[in-house]
Specification:
The structure is a homodimer. Helix content of chain A is about 30%, strand content about 25%. With about 325 residues, chain A is an alpha/beta fold. Chain A folds into two domains: about 190 residues, Quinone Oxidoreductase, Chain A, domain 1; about 130 residues, Rossmann fold. In chain A, the strands form four sheets. In chain A, strands 3, 4, 5, 8, 9, 17 and 18 form a seven-stranded mixed sheet that branches. A six-stranded parallel sheet of chain A has the order 12-11-10-13-14-16, with helices on both faces. In chain A, strands 1-2 form a two-stranded antiparallel sheet. The first copy, chain A, is globular. Chains A and B meet through strand 14, strand 15, helix 10 and strand 16 of A and strand 14, strand 15, helix 10 and strand 16 of B.
Chain lengths: ~325, ~325
């Protein structure tokens, strides 16, 4: 529970129960702290009352409501951070995070031993078997951080042969690198000034590192791309500076995929107009990608779990936030 | 020449001459006044000195520079409002209006009997024969107003079966309707409160008219689309209100194609983020579409020249601007 800026507390709460016939209750195998959890933790997003936290999860189905058909108790499942019916026209169009009946998992609070997942049939994807423990970090990552990095790369139209820039070296940006590599990018330029993150970016497939930011960073990208800018740019921060850095690093006709939750951003219309870029982003429709991403993890093709460089028991959740806030950890995995 | 707000003058100027070996000189068969010419005419875009005006043109090649290979004197040609080399990576990617060597035709002033066109080989498209006079308005339209409406529909990913909204009932918006029809849209909703423009929109293929604007207009669109919004929205105005009307009329995952030159627009990042729309636009890469659009006109498949509801001799250019400014005319064709 978040009581205020910097004040996360582990406390006993009532176990969730089935409220609607389409609900499922999950016993979480693992959960984690998201970069976006740091906005309220830092007091940039405010709340008047204590908030349950967390929206990334995987685990074993404990119980399902009477209308649930596609998942059953005992199955291992992963779900997105937005529950969705997966049947409405928006879901069918691939935008499940904006389902006409979308429900934020954050409101339930996934940093907990048990979680109620609404619209279970539309939201959860089960594995054939309960996976071995070493697969858990990778599978947990598909729930948001990988799904979001993947969406960013997809929104940025990463394709074989393209030059990709990644703005933001948090876990989402790093998995944007992994995603771009999977999609066949020829060159992947990570903008980062942190050595540990640069190393991980190279592991995931980054070919170049740029440490400069803002206008200087843009000038570096232009220099590296014959003055044109990149074909595809992934924005994974959400500030005015990062958005403009992304737009200005993109060549005319190129694509910006932005997934950093916007904070105080106002895009100047005339500059955007003459940039000639494509802009697409928002809350990632993780459900669209889940089956494919879970398969990639289970087959060993990718290891997105490498972004978890700190693992703590759930009752040390406060330290998990602190470590990320102070940039001692890239991403904290929590074991209930 | 524009001397100041509301002050357009017909005056004698020296004929243009070849300045670079890649230039061509065109004797204009027709030119016209663009909606974007009204921004400086109304004093919203300011200039300290008299400006030559006009950037839409078609006519007969009079003379070419020594490096010109693809067009020759005597040919009838149409060109885009940006000259482009059509060989650089940006041009090859289809964004000729943002060519690394792009030159605005507006700086030359196409509301004139003769025009110097830089980068003639990359910019001009010739017909096989000099077309008959009744084809001139349609061919002139391909130079900008149709090319821009077409790009807007393409940027909005108009496809068979889709529902399309058009914000802006000027000539570009009207030809956005025509373009959407050509691209197979199932339903085309024109937002307009002017009866003459509504009529022309229906001629071009609009299936519905919405007279409400702003939030009320958005509510109408939502009601007509099961609460979801349109798949594709064409924005052809360039104001904050029109941009927000376009974004809010689009369903999550849908596409906004915006071509109204932005004036005072600042897009709120968080709203854009949660809208889940694709945003693409800017100065239309007309050169990409010219061969196809000219063919559609010459074959009689489309008649975009219908947007010209006033034709004047060039020396009455001032009246041409006044009529458009006062909305007595949709678009003025000028005959040198």
């Amino acid at each position: 529970m978040l009581y205020g800026p910097g004040d996360v507390r582990f406390e006993e709460r009532p176990d969730p129960a089935i409220l609607e016939p389409t609900d499922a209750i999950i016993r979480l195998t693992a959960t984690c702290v998201c970069g976006s959890d740091l906005w309220p933790y830092r007091g940039i997003d405010r709340s008047d009352q204590p908030m349950p936290m967390g929206h990334e999860y995987c685990g074993i189905v404990e119980e399902v409501g009477s209308a649930v058909r596609l998942v059953r108790p005992g199955q291992f499942v992963v779900g997105s951070f937005f529950a969705s019916d997966n049947t409405c026209p928006i879901c069918k169009g691939g935008y499940q995070s904006r389902c006409v009946d979308a429900r934020p998992i954050g409101a339930e609070g996934a940093q907990a031993p048990y979680l109620r997942v609404p619209l279970a049939d539309g939201t959860l994807v089960a594995t054939r078997e309960v996976p071995p423990d070493d697969m858990i970090p990778g599978l947990l990552a598909t729930s948001d951080v990988l799904g979001t990095g993947w969406f960013a790369a997809d929104a940025a139209e990463v394709k074989p042969g393209k030059t990709v820039v990644v703005v933001g070296d948090g876990a989402v940006g790093l998995l944007g690198v992994l995603s771009a590599r999977q999609m066949g990018a020829e060159r992947i330029i990570m903008m980062s000034r942190h050595e540990d993150r640069q190393r991980l970016a190279r592991t995931f497939g980054a070919t170049d590192i740029v440490t400069e930011r803002g206008d200087e960073g843009v000038a570096c990208i232009k220099e590296m791309t014959d003055g044109l800018g990149a074909h595809s740019v992934i924005e994974a921060v959400g500030t005015q500076e990062s958005m403009m850095q992304a737009v200005r690093s993109t060549r005319p006709g190129g694509h910006v995929g932005y997934v950093g939750v916007s904070h105080g951003v106002a895009l100047p219309g005339l500059e955007l107009f003459f940039s000639g870029v494509h802009l697409h982003g928002g809350p990632a429709p993780v459900r669209r990608y889940l089956p494919h991403l879970m398969e990639l993890v289970l087959s060993g093709a990718i290891d997105p779990g490498a972004v978890f460089d700190l693992t703590l028991p759930l009752d040390q959740v406060a330290e998990g936030y602190r470590a990320m806030d102070e940039r001692r950890a890239i991403k904290t995995l929590l074991r209930p």
